[in-house]
């Protein structure tokens, strides 16, 4: 079996390199998140569309409730 042996200097350099790579990856992830939020505002667009449909649905529910009340009122009058 071949074993990989590192002296203290090489081991320290390897750890520093890994830490730099991790720090760079975190930095890139933050930049990507910032660009996605500013250039592609998916959350704001989704909230706008959801609010638009929610208002439309509320209006439709109110109209259906009013129609149901009228139908039940007419049914009550006819059944008397």
From TrEMBL:
InterPro entries: TF_AP2 (IPR004979), TF_AP2_C (IPR013854)
Keyword Disulfide bond found: no
GO cellular component: nucleus
GO molecular function: DNA-binding transcription factor activity, RNA polymerase II-specific; RNA polymerase II transcription regulatory region sequence-specific DNA binding
Broad class of where this protein is predominantly found: nucleus
Domain Transcription factor AP-2 C-terminal: 23-71
Superkingdom in the source lineage: Eukaryota
A single BP term in Gene Ontology: regulation of cell population proliferation
Keyword Transcription attached: yes
Keywords in alphabetical order: DNA-binding, Nucleus, Transcription, Transcription regulation
Subcellular localization(s) per the UniProt record: Nucleus
Similarity comment text for this entry: Belongs to the AP-2 family.
Entry protein name: Transcription factor AP-2 C-terminal domain-containing protein
């Amino acid at each position: 079996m071949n074993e990989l042996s590192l002296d203290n200097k090489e081991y320290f350099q390897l750890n520093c390199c890994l830490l730099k790579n991790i720090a760079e990856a975190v930095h890139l992830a933050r930049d990507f998140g910032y660009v996605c939020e500013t250039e592609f505002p998916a959350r704001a667009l989704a909230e706008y569309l959801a609010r638009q449909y929610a208002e439309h649905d509320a209006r439709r529910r109110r109209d259906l409730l009013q129609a149901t009340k009228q139908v039940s009122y007419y049914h009550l009058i006819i059944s008397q």
